[in-house]
Amino acid sequence: ASARNGDMRREEREEEEEMGEEVLYVKVMTDEQMEILRRQIAVYATICEQLVEMHKTVSAQQDSLSGMWFGSLYCDPLLTSSSHKIAARQRWTPSPMQLQILENIFVEGNGTPSKEKIKEITTELTKHGHISETNVYNWLQNRRARSKRKQTSAAASNTESEAGIEIELPNDKKARPDAAFSHEKQPQRVDDPSFQDTEMNSLVHSLYPETTKLRAHM
Amino acid sequence: ASARNGDMRREEREEEEEMGEEVLYVKVMTDEQMEILRRQIAVYATICEQLVEMHKTVSAQQDSLSGMWFGSLYCDPLLTSSSHKIAARQRWTPSPMQLQILENIFVEGNGTPSKEKIKEITTELTKHGHISETNVYNWLQNRRARSKRKQTSAAASNTESEAGIEIELPNDKKARPDAAFSHEKQPQRVDDPSFQDTEMNSLVHSLYPETTKLRAHM
DNA sequence: CCTGTATGAATGAAAG
DNA sequence: CTTTCATTCATACAGG
What we know:
Two copies of one chain form a homodimer. By secondary structure, chain A is mainly α. Chain A has seven helices and no strands. Chains A and B meet through helix 1, helix 2, helix 4, helix 6 and helix 7 of A and helix 1, helix 2, helix 4 and helix 7 of B.
């Protein structure tokens, strides 16, 4: 029972849903939307901070428990809430945390995924969830491949732009990003780390001091 | 396989400028930037969730504190912002015409859809509607996979009739280097194009039940 | 409105 | 490394 009437239908639907004047489907954010996003992120940040504060307060009175929490949060965060969680997915799924770290590693661009390194990374990531060296290896491999593919297709259709999409990754000593949103029409380098949000990193860091790697750019 | 069409976006944007009445300079995010943002939000979400869990645990023992807490945190950041939805990531829908053509191509069964071929097909299909190479690629891939699955399940039911055991739980484990035990619950990826609903709202809502308004405009 | 289903897309893993 | 496969995720629709 599938009505394949294509775009027309969808367009109508969307329009009726909300935006009246913006009929076009562009993957573009207006200033306003940017603002919304920024605010939403700010909300997260705020909530997290306050939760952390709260935790501190509470744990000050229950220190026996607090140690346990911080120690086990990432490895086994939800045991308490849902014991009916059986699940057991067959294929590994990186936790957001792991993803973030992997992404950073990728961006840092050591093009050399040495065995040694892999092992090291794996060890680090184990703190944030179940993972194996194979996972790390595969992830990096896939990431590389897909990034490359993207670049290729992008370059293909973007011939006239001499913009020198020097799409080779890493080593960007770009200024530290504060606010992070680019105003340029030209898309930035694909994996521009400058886009990453410092605020969050520091938040995460304050939560999980052992994850210094998150910010490690040197 | 995963490459999203980053360049396509740009083209669309220019289109917009052309036909646009006002110049409307918008800030553009590349897909990659969007993705990074999504992930960062996902990290926030995860942290928040876990903190919430923690809070529940704690407040179960100290309900006097928890009440105070819920009352004071929220500062109404999102209520005002509403109204504009970020253009959703839309998923391509083949027009009937395109579908027909694709079907034919599939039936012709050249099992190897070379890149060359894909490009060609895409060009052809563009005449019948908006489409990209990735779309074609995905479509064929999905078509193949699902066709195959159908056969498999058909065969399975066949076997079942003779064996009498129809337990076909997809529980079979592929050879995995690491023995799998139950994963931690992996919160789903926040992959919401609008950046505005589901995950975050429900998270916030769970934090601040009284702010139901948050969801009002969805 | 909410729930179920078809299907475009993303992605971990493996083959080539 | 590149390409392909298998599985999962998320969304567009249809039906209650």
